[in-house]
UniProtKB/TrEMBL annotation:
<keyword id="KW-0012">Acyltransferase</keyword>
<dbReference type="GO" id="GO:0010498">
    <property type="term" value="P:proteasomal protein catabolic process"/>
</dbReference>
<feature type="domain" description="N-end aminoacyl transferase N-terminal">
    <location>
        <begin position="32"/>
        <end position="103"/>
    </location>
</feature>
<feature type="region of interest" description="Disordered">
    <location>
        <begin position="297"/>
        <end position="324"/>
    </location>
</feature>
<keyword id="KW-0833">Ubl conjugation pathway</keyword>
<dbReference type="GO" id="GO:0005737">
    <property type="term" value="C:cytoplasm"/>
</dbReference>
<feature type="region of interest" description="Disordered">
    <location>
        <begin position="555"/>
        <end position="578"/>
    </location>
</feature>
<dbReference type="InterPro" id="IPR017137">
    <property type="entry name" value="Arg-tRNA-P_Trfase_1_euk"/>
</dbReference>
<feature type="region of interest" description="Disordered">
    <location>
        <begin position="125"/>
        <end position="151"/>
    </location>
</feature>
<comment type="function">
    <text>Involved in the post-translational conjugation of arginine to the N-terminal aspartate or glutamate of a protein. This arginylation is required for degradation of the protein via the ubiquitin pathway.</text>
</comment>
<dbReference type="InterPro" id="IPR007471">
    <property type="entry name" value="N-end_Aminoacyl_Trfase_N"/>
</dbReference>
<dbReference type="Pfam" id="PF04376">
    <property type="entry name" value="ATE_N"/>
</dbReference>
<dbReference type="InterPro" id="IPR007472">
    <property type="entry name" value="N-end_Aminoacyl_Trfase_C"/>
</dbReference>
<feature type="domain" description="N-end rule aminoacyl transferase C-terminal">
    <location>
        <begin position="345"/>
        <end position="486"/>
    </location>
</feature>
<dbReference type="GO" id="GO:0004057">
    <property type="term" value="F:arginyl-tRNA--protein transferase activity"/>
</dbReference>
<feature type="compositionally biased region" description="Basic and acidic residues">
    <location>
        <begin position="309"/>
        <end position="322"/>
    </location>
</feature>
<keyword id="KW-0808">Transferase</keyword>
Length: 636
């Protein structure tokens, strides 16, 4: 019986670069309390593996595609037929991503904050709770590199009309600058940033007759009037709000008058020949002379750009009004670095856990933080420069979000051969109003799109687990078009196709959705009555935290779970009657030796062989045939 120090089947190579071997200890099945349904019972059932030192990125990618996730060096997979809250792996193809209106609004709000047009809104800091990760920075050989805000701007969106509306918004902003320079305004005014929006057909019906040709509208005059009123209140220490509102009206800073003056400025800008611009009760409306929205032709676009640049150049050359200085822009940086302990990150993590998750200080330690978010079994793979590995390499990373040099958020991600897998994000509670979770998810998707040119196989964004009956998970399906992993056949199925099935049952063989035609219900896999979920009304409908709920809860559940051996349950030996029970080629590790089980089974006693083979059958079932023959299974 000859052993070998490295099995050919346990090493992964691409482009001639050996990536090492994967080594795991089998923790078998475990029961624990559920962090999702809060049922109070030990209904969460998972299979666990411990990978303290070595796990190749290729093997972990394949484990993800069989429903696994990691918390530090602990790997876990829900026993989907038995666990109280079946958790489906969810992903989307970055190049197909279509942002929703809400997601675009989050991006624009963040940009307004960077432009200085939006300040800290402390009244909502405790209302908006968000989370998720990176987008556009990379590290070479462990060194951190930053990317400026412009490279990640959503002004490069593929939607032509969105770009045009952003351009109209810039034109209104230029008019606001001219207006504020020519008017006597309070010195502490916060100048808002304009947002031009399309008028829906439903709203057109509610407008006065003759407004059917209205295409776009902007309500920035109301925001500017409110900003002036707030500034006046601050300067009138002994007067009340009513007198301030009266003063606003007397000085002409009401929305109707402001809108009319802004339109006067806009009417002097060439390049919008296909639109009429009018002020109506404080709104700035754009009407199409042709009855339809028509985008400017190339020449008109060039004229618009020239006029905008000329206006901005004129503004910059004018002597600044000391009472109305332009808002200060903020510097935004994204830094990507290899996973490692950072005391500044840890301090931010403590603030986040205390404020957002209401943890007690005794539950937050440096050791638990390291175990959860710093330790990783993934073998780092440096860039090869041949188009198979991105510039940052493959492995575990921390993405740092900095505003004016201050760390405001940290995303923990795994960058793998086919995807960026989002694991966790924590952020400064003082910046909750920016919805950093939603924003960071958009940035991660953009990062994948940008890095496809460096690594063609890197195409997907993994959001972790999705639980349809859990309100805390619903937001993940808003990143469209997404796919869910079938828990039986391990194929990817469009979320929209299987949503009707999940509306009926919590555990579904998703690939059966192909049987659903013309709205007819397809056969559903039977779920025992005691597996129905308990709903908790305390769960928010749309949290911003990507993976906050799953991995945070999993870390807690794992620490509280027992080592109770459930293997006496004979029903767990196989997920179907046709399960392949041949374990002869499973790769076994004994000390420094690597060999197939068939090479050592005769050296094991009959009773010991029966027990071990039962364990190997379960292990093979959860990792699959190919991985069981490639990953080193350590005998204990």
């Amino acid at each position: 019986m000859a052993g070998k120090t490295m099995s050919d089947a346990s090493s992964s190579t691409i482009g001639g670069a050996e990536r090492g071997e994967s080594v795991v200890y089998d923790c078998r099945r475990r029961k624990s309390s559920c962090g999702y349904c809060k049922s109070g019972s030990r209904g969460s059932i998972t299979h666990g593996l411990w990978a303290p030192d070595n796990l190749t990125v290729d093997d972990y990618q394949d484990l993800l595609d069989r429903g696994w996730r990691r918390s530090g060096c602990y790997l876990y997979k829900p026993e989907m037929e038995k666990t109280c809250c079946p958790s489906y792996t969810i992903r989307l193809k970055a190049s197909d991503f279509a942002p929703s209106k809400d997601q675009l609004r989050v991006s624009r709000r963040f940009q307004r904050f960077l432009d200085g047009a939006l300040e800290h809104d402390k009244s909502v800091e405790q209302v908006e709770i968000s989370s998720t990760s990176e987008g556009g920075s990379h590290a070479l050989n462990g060194e951190s590199h930053s990317v400026g805000k412009n490279s990640m701007s959503f002004k490069n969106e593929e939607n032509e009309e969105d770009r045009f509306m952003l351009h109209l918004s810039d034109m209104v902003d230029d008019s606001i600058r001219l207006y504020t320079k020519s008017s006597v305004l309070p010195g502490s005014i916060q100048i808002p940033k304009a947002s031009v929006k399309r008028v829906s057909h439903a709203k057109k019906k509610l407008l006065v007759q003759g407004s059917k040709d209205i295409i776009y509208t902007c309500n920035v005059a109301f925001q500017l009037s409110a900003s002036i009123r707030r500034a006046q209140v601050g300067e009138m220490k002994n007067d009340n709000l009513a007198s301030s509102e009266s003063n606003t009206a007397e000085t002409g800073f009401i929305p109707k008058i402001i809108a009319e003056k802004l339109v006067n400025h806009l009417s002097q800008v060439d390049g919008l020949s296909s639109f009429s611009i009018k002020a109506c009760n404080g709104h700035i409306n754009f009407y199409s002379d042709e009855g339809e929205a028509s985008f400017p032709k190339s020449a008109e676009k060039a004229n618009i750009s020239q006029e905008t640049a000329k206006a901005r150049s004129t503004d910059s050359s004018m002597e600044k009004n000391p009472k109305c200085s332009l808002p200060k822009r903020r510097k935004f940086e994204l830094r990507l670095k290899r996973s490692s302990f950072d005391p500044v990150e840890y301090a931010l993590y403590r603030r986040y856990q205390l404020a957002v998750h209401n943890d007690t200080p005794d539950r937050i330690s440096e050791a638990s933080y390291r175990n959860f978010l710093v330790d990783t079994p993934l073998n780092f793979v440096p860039s090869t420069g041949d188009g198979t590995v991105p510039p940052c390499g493959f492995g575990s990373f921390h993405q740092q979000y900095l505003i004016d040099g201050k760390l405001v958020a940290v995303g923990v991600v795994d960058i793998l051969p086919r995807c960026l897998s989002s694991k966790y994000l924590f952020w400064d509670p003082a910046y909750a109003f920016l919805s950093l979770g939603k924003y960071s998810a958009l940035q991660e998707i953009e990062w994948v799109k940008q890095n496809q040119m460096h690594c063609a196989s890197l195409q997907y964004y993994y959001l972790g687990y999705y639980i349809h009956n859990c309100g805390k998970m619903r937001y993940k399906a808003t990143y469209r078009p997404s796919e869910l992993l079938c828990p039986l056949r391990y194929t990817w199925v469009p979320f929209d196709a299987v949503k009707p099935l999940l509306d009926q049952k919590s555990y579904v063989v998703l690939s059966d959705s192909s049987l659903q035609q013309n709205g007819e219900s397809s056969p559903l896999t039977k779920v025992p009555n005691d597996m129905e979920l308990e709903h908790n009304a305390d769960f928010p409908e749309e949290p911003d935290d990507v993976n906050m709920d799953e991995d945070g809860e999993m870390a807690e559940a794992y620490s509280d779970s027992s080592d109770e051996d459930l293997d006496s349950d004979s029903n767990g030996l196989a997920s179907s009657d046709t399960e392949d029970r041949d374990v002869t080629n499973i790769l076994i590790g004994i000390g420094d030796s690597r060999m197939r089980y068939k090479d050592i089974q005769q050296a094991i006693s009959s009773s010991g062989r029966s027990y071990l083979e039962n364990q190997l059958i379960r292990y093979k079932r959860v990792v699959g045939k190919e991985l069981s023959e490639r990953i080193v299974y350590i005998l204990r």
